[in-house]
Amino acid sequence: MPFAVYVLGLAVFAQGTSEFMLSGLVSSIAADLGVSLAAAGLLTSAFAVGMVLGAPLMALAGRTWPRRRALLFFLAVFVAVHIAGALTPSYGVLLATRFVGALANAGFWAVALTAAVSMVPDRLKGRATAVVVGGVTIACVVGVPAGAVLGERWGWRAAFWAVALVSLPAFAAILRSLPGGVRGDGEAAPVRNELRVRDELRVLTGPRLRPTLLTMALVQGATFCAFSYLEPLLTRESGLSSAWVPAALALFGAGAFLGVTVAGRYADRRATALVAYGMVALALGWSALALTAGRPVAVLVLIPLLGLLAFGTGTALITRLLGQATGAPTLAGASATAAFNLGAAVGPWAGGLALDAGLGHRAPVWVSAALMGLALVVAGARRAAVAVSGVRVTE
Q: Taking phi first (over 0 means left), then psi (-120 to 50 degrees means alpha), and beta for anything else, what does residue 186 get?
């Protein structure tokens, strides 16, 4: 595996810490800025909306740049908005910085995924994808719990400063290690595409890819819905003290890391099986968490298992999508990023609606179970359509 692929994973670690760390900070942000828990949860949705909109837009805007230049630019903007977020006393400004930071993160993700798989042979594309996505899972294991500890001791702003500082070594590593050219061979050629943008869009919006993109969005919606409100679930339903929150987040991240590792090893050969079994298990797992939320031991056992299933299934879905979207070399990574984060936007929003409706702190977890049920319906409808058409499913 080229070292440059691991460098991309390092940068994604810093960005993944930012994307997920609010799950351990929503109560302190809400109290400090004088807003509700649901409003604090919308900071995660704002980030996800920026990712959805930014993935295709930033991929198109940067398609004529050398990949290294594009990645450095996106990472520099990401650092700048986190400094602004750490300094602002305004909820509105913080919301805006989350959105702009997400645009930069989306551009980085779109370029990084495409760059990683372009540097390896076909047999290693799943592993390259897993290395990049693995940066997010390591963030869950280390970065997110560390952010929760910083927030507990020195306030939520300390976590924002930490993300900015951690991003600087990633910036230096990309500058020194990543090839500048489109082929990842060290040339400084700009990124160019032989296909026109509308041809790529035709591939991505075709009947083969639409169900996969929608399934990705629903799976991630379920993950982010429950995860965004994990801290109040633990402290107000399970009866655990706030000191347990970093440990629970680390358990989720450890499971996520294991899930990405397993998916990276087997997704190239058995993506469909991994997705199918993972989705069924997630539907059951989120339901089990909602039912047992008042039992601390059961919750602490389920959290790493759900992390494994969520990120293992998500990685397999990304691998399958990138394999299906070979006719869209510029926008394949962007579409995966957009689908991933469409779910990340809808999930916390839906969970917030359930909380505001007075349905209790278990309600977001039940919403996650419902989203997984809908994902199974979409996936089942796709397979039924394929069976009717007489086309064999091979991916």
A: left
Question: pLDDT per residue over 170-202, tens digit each?
Answer: 788 778 766 655 443 334 444 444 446 666 666
222 to 209, 309, 353, 368, 369: CA distances (angstroms): 20, 12, 14, 4, 7
Q: Is the dihedral of CA 372, 313, 110, 380 positive or negative?
A: negative
Distance of CA 263 to CAs 5, 253, 309, Å? 17, 15, 10
Global pTM reads 0.67
**Residues 372-384: pLDDT tens digits?**
999 999 887 666 5
From residue 217, how far is each of 48, 71, 272, 363 by CA, in Å?
A: 11, 25, 17, 20
**Contact call for residues 238 and 293 (beta carbons, < 8 A):** yes
How far apart are the C-alpha atoms of 202 and 59, rounded to whole Å?
16
Closest C-alpha among 55, 69, 134 to residue 314: 134
pLDDT band at 370 (very low <50, low <70, confident <90, very high): very high
Q: Are 160 and 29 in contact (CB under 8 A)?
A: no
Distance (Å, whole) CA 371 – CA 110: 25
pLDDT score of 84 more than 90: yes
* Rounded CA separation 168/172 (Å): 6
Residue of 386, 390, 367, 395 lying closest to 41 (CA atoms): 367
**Interatomic CA distance for residues 15 and 267, integer angstroms:** 24
